[in-house]
């Protein structure tokens, strides 16, 4: 075990951070957060980090306090003379704001990248960015991991020779096609039209799913509107079953109700975001061993490319 590695966590990701630390073989570092009556808060490292490689685990899903807590912890580690500061961000929030898709809007993902670098981060480790180009928003190295490392084995177990991969929208076609090529299966795509964000107006299917076990793959599931509409549509077109693999279980608004009432047999997600509630249709795969192994390889200056099964 390398000397000089410490793993800490923000409050939003304590569960996954504990598992990462355990898989790596160290105890989770001690952090306290002081809350003030007006809502302000102050994280503090309760052990020395001088000259250490500090890994701070925190997903940046809403509320924005999660992002700001990560920024404060990075700043605190820098001012405490940490040798290197690596932000382990299992879910990178604001990633959907990766470009100007209409006039007079911010590029939120770039702003977050700027803030992380200004705080003093030396490296970013994250999983399944909503848009690959976000890596280029940073002037520090980015280790972009893929949940396909975990999902591929699970999908193989379900492959009885009747499988077809599917994308819930055109944006996910590249990802689904990568799986389809690797598994040597067919591909189906849902084409959707939105009138406004988080609301699908209409949807059609491209491809024949009759009698097939459909596997939907996507990077995140937010309100589950697209996913459940796609599942219901596939079943109406003669599919035998529909399962979905989504890396980030954002699951906001009516998501749980939609999933429970849908034609989905199962929704498989990772633990990059903790579930708000339980559902018999949702199964969680842990990413802790993957992150721990990448941290180990990073500390020992070893290649991590073996983890990129499908990208």
UniProtKB/TrEMBL annotation:
Kindly report, in one word, the top-level EC class recorded for this enzyme. Answer: transferase
Q: Which residues form the Ribose-phosphate pyrophosphokinase N-terminal domain?
A: 5-120
Among InterPro entries, the record links this protein to: PRib_PP_synth_CS, Pribosyltran_N, PRTase-like, PRTase_dom, Rib-P_diPkinase
Q: Which domain of life is it from?
A: Bacteria
Q: Which PROSITE patterns does the record associate with it? A: PRPP_SYNTHASE
For this UniProt record, give its keywords in alphabetical order, as a comma-separated list.
ATP-binding, Kinase, Magnesium, Metal-binding, Nucleotide biosynthesis, Nucleotide-binding, Transferase
The protein in question is named ribose-phosphate diphosphokinase
User: Organism, per UniProt?
Assistant: Wandonia haliotis
